[in-house]
Design goal:
Layout (H helix, E strand, L loop, with lengths): L3 E5 L3 H7 L3 H11 L3 E7 L9 E2 L5 E2 L6 E6 L2 E6 L9 H25 L4 E5 L4 H13 L3 E5 L5 H5 L8 H16 L2 E4 L5 H6 L15 E3 L6 H10 L5 H4 L3 E6 L9 H9 L6 E6 L5 H10 L5 E5 L6 H6 L3 E4 L15 H8 L4 E3 L7 H5 L2 E3 L5 H13 L2 H16 L3 H14 L1
Parallel strand pairs: 1-2, 1-7, 2-6, 7-8, 8-9, 9-10, 11-12, 11-14, 12-13, 14-15, 15-16
Antiparallel strand pairs: 3-4, 5-6
Helix pairs in contact: 2-17, 3-4, 10-15, 13-16
């Protein structure tokens, strides 16, 4: 009998709604390999004030119980009762705290009914899920894998929400160190994240107490078959995509960290190129400001498309000429690589990619599927767009095919085998 795996992710409820995502796909593929897998998430969607009620768009209501259950595509989900959370204030803190506290009685009750796990995989974003994973795994006397999808609290320090040298900053860093020390295995989603442990001198080679042999790299990825199928079946009616233009596409959030205004800077320099069009799909707190800028600057070569249902993203990307990975250079440390879901969707689309930041452990370089800007200047982006537009057709097609071939290495069939290797090493 193969092992029973519990996968914990506070925001896994979004995966339940979307029938896809990292832990949903891990669970699906673990079950194909004969493992038992259950996904635990909060009872509320990420960034929504509404509780779920059964299987409607609103969600799941746990009623008077501390949890509710449901199964989607044969994947069992457990929804741990939490309060709603909007924004990043006290509601969010309360939401995280309740998820942590309620995991203890929920795990105990669920295990009595369905059997205890053989391994708990506790995933960030916030660290309390990993703390609960370590503590509850100890009670069950089973191993805990801690999955670090964002180096936390480094990300908080990067955005100046907390000072690293402050009292709170030191407490957060100490808590992070405790998690890394206590976890039976660590999974990082960026190839260079173990460099962080070395930078902190926490590894045993430098006199620390963390064995780098328990550190593993499993990037984010894609369900490639589902992506290709969706690109053919979920057709998005958009006349701009149908026009015979060189479509420069961005699909994602429109927030300061995404620096979408930089794309408009480049578009302004390309206004005279009537055969190039910038199509921006997504929403965020800078959406209205940028829409107004398009009007004020008369950027007729830019279309701000707004929010798009995720099911249409594969089709949209497949109709692009080049896809742009666009980030702020200053608000994040890109030296350790990239683990954005967007990257692997772009690769799966089979189109060349431009990254506006030069990253360490660069996947675009490794697979020869795109170009990275050496300098984050609008003129550099313009030059790179024109370079791809004007390159020989064979070179252009090879770059797109390299992207699709590279996506195969990040298909969840492949990534789950890597996860199984970690599980069995315990």
């Amino acid at each position: 009998m193969k092992k029973n795996i519990w996968l914990w992710n506070h925001y896994a409820t979004d995966m339940y709604k979307n029938r896809g995502g990292r832990h949903f796909w891990f669970a699906e593929n673990l079950m194909k390999q004969g493992y038992k897998a259950t996904v635990f998430g909060a009872s509320t969607y990420h960034n929504t004030a509404k509780y779920m009620k059964n299987i409607t768009d609103i969600g799941i209501d746990t009623g008077d119980e501390k949890y509710a259950t449901d199964t989607i595509n044969n994947v069992p989900f457990v929804f741990v009762k939490t309060t709603s959370a909007l924004g990043n204030g006290t509601d969010r803190v309360k939401n995280m705290g309740l998820f942590y506290l309620n995991l203890f009685p929920v795990a105990k009750t669920y295990a009595k009914i369905n059997g205890k796990p053989d391994v708990i995989l506790a995933s960030s974003v916030h660290p309390l899920t990993m703390v609960a994973g370590i503590q509850i795994a100890k009670k069950f006397q089973v191993p805990c894998i801690c999955e670090v999808r964002d180096l936390w609290p480094e990300a908080i320090f990067s955005f100046n929400k907390v000072k690293e040298k402050s009292f709170l900053g030191k407490i957060l860093t100490a808590g992070e160190h405790w998690i890394y020390k206590k976890a039976d295995a660590l999974i990082f989603t960026k190839e260079g994240d173990t460099d962080y442990i070395k930078e902190k001198m926490w590894d045993k080679d430098q006199g620390g107490n963390i064995d780098l042999k328990k550190c593993h790299y499993i990037n984010n990825g894609i369900d490639l078959d589902a992506f290709i199928k969706s690109s053919k079946e979920n057709v998005f009616d958009d006349k701009d995509l149908a026009e015979n233009k060189f479509n420069v596409v961005y699909a994602g959030s429109i927030r300061p960290v995404n620096n979408v205004g930089f794309i408009l800077d480049a578009a302004a320099l390309l206004k005279e190129h009537s055969d190039i069009k910038f199509l921006i799909y997504g929403d965020g707190n800078q959406q209205e400001m940028l829409k107004q800028r398009v009007i004020n600057e008369r950027l007729t070569n830019v279309k701000m498309k707004g929010y798009i249902n995720k099911q249409y993203i594969p089709y949209i990307l497949s109709k692009s000429s080049v896809n742009i990975l666009n980030y702020s250079q200053s608000q994040y440390n890109w030296a350790r690589g990239n683990s954005s879901n967007k990257l692997f969707e772009y690769m799966a689309s089979g189109k060349p990619i431009i990254s506006t930041v030069k990253m360490g452990y660069c996947i675009l370089d490794k697979y020869k599927c795109g170009l990275s800007l050496e300098n984050i200047e609008p003129e550099e982006l313009v030059k790179t767009i024109l370079q791809i537009k004007n390159m020989p057709q064979k070179h252009y097609k090879d770059m797109g095919q390299n992207a699709r071939n590279g996506a195969k290495d990040f298909d969840f069939n492949v990534l789950t085998i890597k996860l199984i290797d970690v599980i069995e090493s315990l």
